[in-house]
Amino acid sequence: MTVGVRVHVDADICEEHGQCVFAAPDIFDLGDDGLTYAIQVDDTREPEVLAAQSACPVQAIKLTRVGASGM
């Protein structure tokens, strides 16, 4: 079973400030098509996605732990 973190950005809330990109550039990208991001990341990347979530000024990033605990 894969253990990791599922990432969701609420497009209705996101204002594309790009702070998540600065915090986790390998996970989030802000380009001509708007914000794109990895839907799920390995648990070793959790500190990066937590930093991105904390950096978001409109709190548009939601994280869900998946894997070993059955979530």
Plain-language structure description:
The mean pLDDT is 92. A hairpin with a 2-residue loop joins strand 2 (28-31) and strand 3 (34-37). It is built from two helices and five strands. The longest helix is centred in the C-terminal third of the chain and has 10 residues, at 46-55. It has helices spanning 19-23, 46-55; strands at residues 4-9, 28-31, 34-37, 40-42, 61-66. By secondary structure, the chain is α+β, with helices and mostly antiparallel strands. Strands 4-1-5 form a three-stranded antiparallel β-sheet, with helices on one face. Strands 2-3 form a two-stranded antiparallel sheet.
Side by side, the strands of the main sheet go: 4-1-5
Q: What is the gyration radius calculated from CA atoms? A: 12 Å
Taken from the alpha-carbon principal axes, the silhouette is globular
Number of strands: 5
The percentage of residues in β strands lies in 25-35%
- Given the structure, what is the number of helices? 2
Question: SSE string, helix = H, strand = E?
Answer: EHEEEHE
Structural class computed from helices and strand pairing: alpha+beta
Report helical residue fraction.
10-25%
Summarize model confidence as the mean pLDDT.
Answer: 92
Main sheet record: 3 strands, antiparallel
